[in-house]
Amino acid sequence: MLTVVTAFNYENDNKSEGRVCMALIGPSLMCADMANLQDSVLRLDQAGVDFFHIDVMDGKFVPNFTLGPDLIKRIREFTNKPFDVHLMVEKPEDYLNLFIESGADMISVHAEATYHLQRTLQTIKDQGLKAGVAINPATPIHDIEYVLDVVDYITVMTVNPGFAGQKFVPLMNGKLRDLTSLINKCGYKIDIQVDGNIGYETIPNVLKNGANMLVCGTSSLFKQNLPLEEAVAKLKGFIQELETNKV
Ligand code: DX5
Ligand code: ZN
């Protein structure tokens, strides 16, 4: 497991307490009640989530459409927590400014969606944001080996991107393990984010295999008849227990 979190600079806190850093919780806002998004963002922020994961789809890279820059700009007013914009779009380099201006703090682009991955990531960093690269389940980690020096976080898609409510792709735990050892072997400080069906069944293994940023959607936070505050408290308690039992 990676022992350092860079995107949020939690390094010092956790080291001083001598325990492995607490995994970070990021609600996937595409799973929220769109008719009450302001209320959901305010309540999730109050409940203590660490960042907000915002899925952007173009109907081409993935066969679906979700949130756009204007909506991001609007909800930016409701919280100071980091906005992690997950671009599931072709040629993401053409749209970076739109999302930077909308208030993103972190932007991940898909390695499969651009010819110029290194340049696109460098552009995000040059604009003062955290740069992330996302890889689909079938994409080997080797494909991002030569951008490890520029990324702040890597999003390992644990489902095929495009829809919430899908099942975890089983081989992704092995992929996480391989990615963690590659990062440690190269001595980089990179956060590992997992996205897709991240819930009580899948969290123990993804944490064990090196993930430290959890995108939480219908599998953990956005559930019928479970108030958001309770969902966050329950999830934090579950992760805390896993972390405590591990040390
Ligand atoms: C899927 C998105 C995910 C999704 C997660 O392409 O990137 O963020 O919303 O939803 P669940 O947790 O239901 O898989
Ligand atoms: Zn996502």
Structure notes:
- It is a single chain.
- The protein is α/β, with parallel strands linked by helices.
- It has helices at residues 11-16, 37-47, 69-75, 96-102, 117-126, 172-186, 203-208, 228-246, and strands spanning 24-27, 52-57, 83-88, 106-110, 130-135, 153-157, 191-195, 213-216.
- Strands 1-8-7-6-5-4-3-2 form an eight-stranded parallel β-sheet.
- α2 (37-47) packs parallel to α8 (228-246) and α3 (69-75) runs parallel beside α4 (96-102).
- The N and C termini lie close together (12 Å).
- Zinc ion (ZN) binds at residues 28, 53, 55, 86, 195, 215.
In short:
Helices cover 33% and strands 17% of the residues.
Q: What's the SSE blueprint?
A:
Blueprint: H1 11-16, E1 24-27, H2 37-47, E2 52-57, H3 69-75, E3 83-88, H4 96-102, E4 106-110, H5 117-126, E5 130-135, E6 153-157, H6 172-186, E7 191-195, H7 203-208, E8 213-216, H8 228-246
Helix pairs in contact: 2-8, 3-4
Bound molecules: D-xylitol-5-phosphate (DX5) and zinc ion (ZN).
Residues 28, 30-31, 53, 55, 86, 159, 161-162, 164-166, 195-198, 215, 217-219 line the site of D-xylitol-5-phosphate.
Instruction: Please list the strands of the largest sheet in the order they lie side by side.
Output: 1-8-7-6-5-4-3-2
* Strand fraction: 15-25%
Tell me, briefly, the overall form: globular
Mean pLDDT across all residues, rounded? 92
What are the secondary-structure elements, in order, as H or E?
A: HEHEHEHEHEEHEHEH
Helix content percent band? 25-40%
Q: What's the number of extended β-strand segments?
A: 8
Give the terminus-to-terminus CA distance: 12 Å
Major sheet: 8 strands, parallel
Low-confidence stretches: 1-20
